[in-house]
């Protein structure tokens, strides 16, 4: 993806690339190490999402809930709405009331809950 594509899907990148910030003149974006790995995952998903069949929904049933939360954090930070929508749907498909109750009880076994 290039600057124009990133700017079209994210107000964060639009501001960074065209808002007079240091990234406007630079060809590099700097993230701390943990965010850069998440950013690369986001880019891979965006490339899959914006394949030759524009905005074809990829099958993400393989994705763990933990990975989905990681991508959600980065996509939220970078304001990438198409990815936020996709990942939110993945999370909703993997979480139900029973899994939330089970997670709550498991957490209660380790921590004292009020």
TrEMBL record:
This is ABC transmembrane type-1 domain-containing protein. It comes from Brugia pahangi. InterPro entries: SKP1/BTB/POZ_sf (IPR011333).
